Amino acid sequence: MTDLNQPMSAKSANAEVAESLREILERIATAAIGAGRKPEDIALVAVSKVQPPDRVRAAWLAGHRVFGENRVQEAMERWAPLRGEFPDIRLHLIGPLQTNKVKDAVEFFDVIESIDRPKLARKIAVESDALGRRPVCLIQVNTGEEEQKAGVVPEEADALIALCRDELGLDLRGLMCIPPVEELPAPHFALLREIARRNTLPELSMGMSGDFEEGIRFGATMVRVGTAIFGSRRAP
Ligand SMILES: *Cc1c(COP(=O)(O)O)cnc(C)c1O
Prior knowledge:
Elements: H1 10-34, E1 43-47, H2 53-61, E2 66-69, H3 72-83, E3 90-93, H4 102-108, E4 111-115, H5 118-131, E5 136-140, H6 157-167, E6 171-176, H7 186-198, E7 203-205, H8 212-217, E8 222-225, H9 227-230
Parallel strand pairs: 1-2, 1-8, 2-3, 3-4, 4-5, 5-6, 6-7
The structure holds pyridoxal-5'-phosphate.
Pyridoxal-5'-phosphate binds next to β8 and α9.
């Protein structure tokens, strides 16, 4: 019998992560099919930032391989020791990137989703050449034109895309956005899709725990889901 005075055991917390992961994958498949798309065309990026290592490990043990982190330093501290053990993981950087962290980011991440200015793009190109590594790149678009939010404003997106792809030769595949919290996400997803379409970029990273199904309806090829898999990031 379960002793209710004991904190939830590591085992049940891990079982919960595996269960949530299964549930999210099912919801992704249902949303994809509902939109006339193939479930395998949508990648689930499990956002592991600030989560206890046990839960992250539980997702890996359940077969998941693609993880997202929003800070370079924290990601390296967390994942550097695990990468030997989990050689087939793919890490996405989904948070703002400072130019002084670019070298680490290029070395460590498989996908950089948050390019948002020419200076950053140029630095990524320089470090990619120096390191002989070419991460997949996405440009983050600040679709809501929010003062405090990272991302290139929509009217400057085409120019930044051209710089990254044509001039710098980055492996630019698509766009990412984070809609304003207080607005419906649909118009933002539609805008991102339109910018990608006119620039023939195939990848769209849009949709989080609260709106990934909507993202899929608008053509997301990557959804970034944290709390719906791992639970709250707040300290208990
Ligand atoms: C934290 C974060 C997510 C995940 O958010 P949840 O609401 O926990 O799913 C997705 N994208 C970015 C850029 C984030 O920083």
